[in-house]
Amino acid sequence: MFMQNLPTKVRINEVATRDGFQSEALFIPTDKKIEIIDRLSLLGLNKIEVTSFVSPKAIPNLRDAEEVMNSITRNPKVTYVTLVPNEKGAERALATKADEVNLVMSVSESHNLSNMRMSCEQSLAQFIRICELMKGSSTRINASLATSFGCPFEGIIAPERVIKVIHQYIDIGIQSISIADTTGMASPRQVYELCSQVRDIFPALDVTLHLHNTRGMGLANALAGLSAGITQLDASLGGIGGCPYAPGATGNICTEDLVHMLESIGLDTGVDLTTLLVMARELPELLEHDISGQVAKAGLRTETRPLSQSVIDLKARIEKH
Amino acid sequence: MFMQNLPTKVRINEVATRDGFQSEALFIPTDKKIEIIDRLSLLGLNKIEVTSFVSPKAIPNLRDAEEVMNSITRNPKVTYVTLVPNEKGAERALATKADEVNLVMSVSESHNLSNMRMSCEQSLAQFIRICELMKGSSTRINASLATSFGCPFEGIIAPERVIKVIHQYIDIGIQSISIADTTGMASPRQVYELCSQVRDIFPALDVTLHLHNTRGMGLANALAGLSAGITQLDASLGGIGGCPYAPGATGNICTEDLVHMLESIGLDTGVDLTTLLVMARELPELLEHDISGQVAKAGLRTETRPLSQSVIDLKARIEKH
């Protein structure tokens, strides 16, 4: 039965300041980033993916990664994550005492070559060195499986390929993963089937589902994942972010739209939706473009408005007769 | 289990030229409307809601309703629908030999007063007169239940209120209905629960689900409805349309995004998605604004691109070592 196996509690990880800001054309001022992260820290989110320790040449908007990480006010209830693409990034993350590093490799070799400029073999070898480097630190390691459902070069990805990579991750000691629909190609059936398999084969694994709304199926896919036993979702304030390979397409699933939907079906996210909406509504001015999030525009589904005076008058006239 | 009870075949009704065009600021030239309907007629759609026989003062964009209905080339496989708000409209629809008229009443009294300028009692009395008027004609009658899930004035609508109205419809001889989420307030749980009840209580009733994507849940709601036994969905090319009460919010669920999702999970719609996409991509120029449909921007999820030369070179270098 539809929605029969939904979890009662869902953890939400906010990725706007990393996956969102990285693809923005305008530089977002460092103090603005810090302010946004500090405000997000108070909203009941599980993790905040703060920034990425990449080359400033590759992603100029995140060139202030150290300053942001060192200046935010940490809430002990929140896990502060940074993306690290290589050992250099891992060292930088360690120096800023990130709670967690997020490593990324694509299930698709072609996408990994395009995105990381490495073969998957090279990525895995690097993961081993990063795990070595992190030993003894209190920083958690999460590893993402980009293009887990589809790759813009190789097409739809079979679940066996994802399962194989998860085995490779586990073999090198990784116990926390994100299954990512990097370019928004997943269908609800794919999400349900892959997530069910992952829950069955790796019951102890800490699994996050990272979805994009590129083809409008983001929230349907979120429901599919939750029905398959997933309890942790990445999402982005305002739905910002996206893949440079799909111009005009929207980015990550939108945090406030996701929380709004989950609450509408009675799931507990612990997230302060009212303040999320306030923050989402500030984004168009900051980013100088519209956002794809829809609840910020339409308002909560439970919001009502008073009847206009002409309707009240009409009603009175009808009742009189 | 998620998606266990999905139908294998789903009928899609296109409403862009009525629910979409009615809220457009620019007048869409009559010959353009006719051309669009004629092209839509060849795509495997179940119904096309062509126009609305309303007062031209109320909806100037549909002031050419007669001319459009009389000039389109009918495909006998398609049911050509016109919305009629009153007896006058029904007479106009009959004169143009519409295959079906769509009557509308809101489940919420406040919304009916606002939208139809009538009480629900008055609407029902009018439905009876329209049914009388249609007797002997070959024109089918469908009646919509607007605000079946939520009303912007009264808030969330309880399923019992919808069931009560369906009983009232059946009592006056109506056997075909549309359950409408007029302002996009439905949650997937609400859709699943109401549609399940309707299928259980009225197994012989012809039921369409009419959804809006105002708060981003449109496709999740469509899945919920299909899981509850619904096999007929309204949708709008490009996702155009919407409710004047929710400015900035998107309109109906988008036909091409819906068909794309349904095909991605293996459901047969019989609809020519390739041509739908061609037509959706022409809309921004015609309407002079962007559309909310996302597959038209991002492309099919199965579309792939070749690797760039630099990635091919990189791959060769890696393999050499």
Mean pLDDT of chain A: 95
What portion of residues of chain A belong to β-strands? 5-15%
State the secondary-structure class of chain A.
Answer: alpha/beta
> Greatest interface and its residue counts?
A-B, 71 and 71 residues
Described by its quaternary structure, the protein is homodimer
What portion of residues of chain A is helical? 40-55%
Helices and strands of chain A, in order, run as: EHHEHEHEHHEEEHEHEHEHHHH
Shape of chain A: globular
* Second CATH tier, the architecture of chain A: Alpha-Beta Barrel
The major sheet of chain A is characterized as: 8 strands, parallel, barrel
Residue stretches of chain A low in confidence (pLDDT < 50, at least 5 long) are: none
CATH homologous superfamily classification of chain A: Aldolase class I
Treating each run of at least 4 consecutive H or I residues as one helix, how many helices of chain A?
13
Separation, N- and C-terminal Cα atoms of chain A:
48 Å
Question: CATH fold name of chain A, please?
Answer: TIM Barrel
**In order across it, which strands form the biggest sheet of chain A?**
1-2-3-4-5-8-9-10
> What is the CATH top level name of chain A?
Alpha Beta
List the helices and strands and how they pair.
The structure is a homodimer of 321-residue chains.
Chain A: E1 11-14, H1 16-20, H2 30-40, E2 47-52, H3 65-71, E3 79-84, H4 87-95, E4 100-106, H5 109-116, H6 120-134, E5 140-146, E6 150-151, E7 155-156, H7 159-171, E8 176-180, H8 188-201, E9 206-210, H9 218-227, E10 232-235, H10 255-264, H11 273-287, H12 295-298, H13 309-320
Parallel strand pairs in A: 1-2, 1-10, 2-3, 3-4, 4-5, 5-8, 8-9, 9-10
Antiparallel strand pairs in A: 6-7
Helix pairs in contact in A: 2-3, 4-6, 8-9, 10-11
